[in-house]
Amino acid sequence: MEERPGSSIGVVGLGAMGLGMAGSLRRAGYQVHVCDVRTQAAEAFAAEGGVACASPAALAAYCEVIVCVVVNAAQTEVVLFGDDGAAAAMKSGSLFVMCSTVDPGWSIALEARLAERGLLYLDAPISGGAARAASGHMTMMTAGRPEAYAKAGAALDAMAAKVYRLGDRAGNGSKVKIINQLLAGVHIAAAAEAMALGLREGVDAAALYEVITHSAGNSWMFENRMAHVLAGDYTPLSAVDIFVKDLGLVLDTARASKFPLPLSATAHQMFMQASTAGFAREDDSAVIKIFPGITLPAKG
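Now predict its structure.
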């Protein structure tokens, strides 16, 4: 596809989601500049079409729209304000699209910090997993000023099948993502608990999976994550420690208004237990490993 005139766009962070998003933008005709702490990841993307940049500042010299797909607020701070950070190099009126799961209050404050520099901001967390990111079918939960959406143009729709506009100021995108992560974390923990009970009771794991995925007790997380357990494959698509972080954010958000979240608190403890037991960097389905007295399927 021919490049659109003036359509350079930057992507910082080429992990499971960012790489797919950069690929979707490239297929849509954008000239995609990329940056990642793993230089080989950026170079591999550039070899297929695109431009590898050595730093966020170098990327900002070419792009007036930067999509940041790193793990958390701390990494986003480094991208923007660290050595060779993007903020100092971005032209006035440029747009920073923040796709991480973060504290909503931090996101609200970041919008104001960037506005002081003459920069636009979109609070735009993402969901859907690596496969949907790669195909351009993920979900974006966005909030920001009208001029930020205008600057983004068609780029958001190039990356996501569903782009929800949740407010004209930052905050609601991150709040909705926090609620999504509450449900995702609790569903994974509940799925692991159910599968663990079945294994303890001597039920065939594959049969249990078949029945539940065709019954009222099914959930998207059961169907997706328990398939990893059946395969004995804990290669991280989303790691245990992601939910240590995200459910921690959920609880912090609720604690600020003294709102009780008993299921979230229990699920958080389960992921914490899995993390401290040595499974921090395994797939989040590895939370099932905290249950004693069960024999998990071996990797085939």
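The radius of gyration is 20 Å.
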